Amino acid sequence: MLVTLALTAVFAAQIPKIKVDPAPENLLSASEEEGLETTQLFKEAFGDSSHVLLVLLTSDNVLSAENLAYQHALTQGLSSIGAIDRIESLTDMVLPRRVEPDAAEDEGDLEDLDDVDDLDDLDALEDEEVEAGFDAATMNALIDIIESDPARFPGGLQAVGPRLQTTLRYDPIAKDGVLPDDAEAQIRNALAQSPLLVGRLVSQDHTAAAVALFLKELSGRDMPRLVKDVEAWIAENPAPEGSEVRLAGLPYVRSAIVERIRADQIILVPFTLLVCMALLWIAMRWIGGVFLTIASVGVLLMVTLGGMALAEEPLNILNNIIPPLLIIIGVTDCIHLLSRYRDEIGRGNDRHAAASQAVRSLAVAIFFTGATTAIGLGSLIAARTEMLKHFGVTSAIGVMIAYVVTIFFVPPLMVSVKPPRGKPEKPSGGRPLESAMLVLTSRVLKKPWPVVAAAVVLLVASAIVATRIRVDHALLDQFDHDDPVYVTTQLLENKLDGVRPLEIMVRAEDPEIFLDPEFIQALDDVQAWARGHEEVIRTMSYGAILDQSLALLADDLSVFQEPFKSEAQVKALVAMFGNRKPNPLHRFLSEDGKLARVQIMLRDAGANRTIQIIDALEAELARRFEGKPVSFRLTGDAYTSSRVQHAVVSDLLSSLLAAVFIIFVLLVGLFRSVRLGLLSIPPNLIPLVGTMAYMVLRDVPLNMSTVIIFSISFGLAVDGSIHVLARFREETRRGRLPSAALLRAARGTGRANVVSYTTLMCGFGIFLLSSFVPVRQFGELIAVTVGTCLIGTVFLLPALLKLFGQSRADRERERTERERLRALLREGRG
């Protein structure tokens, strides 16, 4: 006991060190080597824009004077926050644009024209000092551009050069921290000349605008603080009347998840304990047993959470449910042990003898119930996402810790508290619940075939309905429709670019191929093909950036509808970008020129539809670039999450079947009977099929968040069958006939099974209070599965044991005994 308490104290001291991982993308992140390699290569070549916090402003006109003034004030006000590296907004970013000659007060170097890449990627937007005059490289590039398309530049360099220096501007609208009176007109003029900017920082209808906050590297604890600082500034500086401000972006989502994980722990753990305490008191009316159970789950939680801290295993969207999950499992283990202890006390045994007998009788059964649950959870190791693997392994270890605590910690305490008021055993059962179990079991044993027939009908009907189950996943499935994350994501999809990128990474050993106008046109054709799908919001590539630069030079937007004239023209445009350090074009064309990027922004249409688009895209790429010395790899959140989604569901279903087989082998080994092992499967398999049918009726899709329910619930559900079968074997070994043994098993384990299953249902029902939709679905579906298993254990299992659980010798012995009793009755009547 002292050793247990000392170890518990050591682990408990580590709990404050446990971390919170708020990254929702880890739920869908691939663990495949090729996928990780592609993702890493993409980030190295084109950067990682996941550290951008967006402040969204919505209004009837975000370009009005008051709204522009607010965006400018927001940019200036938030710049004092140390964790923000830089801020970009319509009012304070560099906006390349053409103006009337008399308005061009400042001159600048033509090489700054590559600021048009600001229109492509927000993290390429940055201020710079302007130098006067053209350097030699810029001049040579400009000459090549003009000579490649003389019709677009009448008068040649002599006419174009001076005009460019007097009509091109590449500076922010705000000067010296002050917005000009005609700021709206200037920005509208810039937007008209820069179509690539529309959809990035401002919507087409000018009802939504974004201010991008580029963050420094922050720890998990610092990110929520930063978000709170931004929210505090917004609260102190409200938007103009009729306008609304929202936060968006991955940093905001992560911060929100951290807060919800903490809120869930505050709600789920205490409420789960309260519900379990209430059920224990109602079922046992033994205050000592209630506090014993609380003490055991307390030790369980401290050891498990302390172990997670030592192993640097964080709390995340999935691991968040481990504490309440272990509370429920720990309580159900204690229920069986305490119920048996109470029975032994009722037989007249003293505390130590009763405790010893209870442990001897249940140690093996509780071990196997824990093992089956751990195997179900451990089957998640087949998943292709690290988060699912870690959840399965961590929770499986926690389940086995629960067994150790129940067997080695509870009994010493059990004999030290006032024992329950035991009642002498009565043939009728003694207590209402036990009497009810005896009545139900006796009726099932009298007419087992109707029960089995009803179960078969239920199984067939459920299987037919279950075939209509929908396998799909959408990002917004994780959030309620009134959730700020859901609302903001919808706003981003409807007004701006959305949040789900599908990235095409093109590799070529010869960089010259990316400068070929025909190749660029082929990429443009692929993008045009993609935009033909209603799920595609926008596409972007380096060709569009070069088009934008040429359009500004020529003051002609028709450039976007025409292919480049020659490779020399493309090289000259690329060379102008090369004068910048860092080169903004490298967001879509790598520094060594061997990798190119095409970005396709998708709506959150679900994994099924996304995969259809991906398959069609891969076929389109293969068709258009057949024979070309290039290769393609797809990546991005839309690709990774959709591909991994289907792969994981398939893997987990396969691993579930493997878990069922392993559990069957364990049961055969436990009972040393293939017959009993087989009979334990139907009462627990039918609930799984029934739950799938329930999912169809509730329109809950099968995805990574819901498929794990089956891995967990099967292991939990089979526990009741194990206790019934173990008691059945115990009674038959005492020489009782099978029917009598079944009645004794129903009396001995029925009460504990009803209480434990009810505890499971009510405990998981507490999950409905969670902030996360997947956690609520988890609780609902497991409660349904466990509730159905209770029915299977009470009705179907006794019927199956009656019909098929006896050997030929047992049936012959029971028939002989029945005839002997009938003969005695006839003699008595005679």
The number of distinct β-strands equals 10
What would the CATH topology of the domain at 256-312 and 324-410 and 442-471 and 642-821 be? Answer: Multidrug efflux transporter AcrB transmembrane fold
Structural class, from secondary structure content? alpha+beta
CATH architecture name of the domain at 256-312 and 324-410 and 442-471 and 642-821: Up-down Bundle
Low-confidence stretches: 104-132
Descriptive account of the structure:
- The protein has 830 residues and is of the alpha+beta class.
- Among the domains are: 354 residues, Multidrug efflux transporter AcrB transmembrane domain (Multidrug efflux transporter AcrB transmembrane fold, Up-down Bundle), CATH 1.20.1640.10; 158 residues, no CATH class.
- It is built from 27 helices and ten strands.
- The strands form three sheets. A four-stranded antiparallel sheet has the order 2-5-1-6, with helices on both faces.
- The relative contact order is 0.12.
- About 3% of the residues have low confidence.
